[in-house]
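Side project, low priority. Logging it here so it doesn't get lost.
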Amino acid sequence: METTETNILDIVIWTGAAISLLGLVGLVWCIIAVSRAKRANLDDDAMRAVLKSAIPLNLGALFLSVIGLMMVIVGIFLG
């Protein structure tokens, strides 16, 4: 009979997966925002403003994805 106890590393794995998924959602949002701006045929200044606002969010979302994947890998290796 198997026990259903929750190991701390299982929590690390699932938390990392959730954080990575949040980062992925952020990356998809950035892609959609920039593609909408591109389809709107904005002038150079407006396009630069959209890109300036999207780049920090893109880097933050990428950071979240990387941290989440690191948590998953550490949880798997140590578990």
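Brief comment: The helical segments are 8-39, 44-78.
Revisit when time allows.
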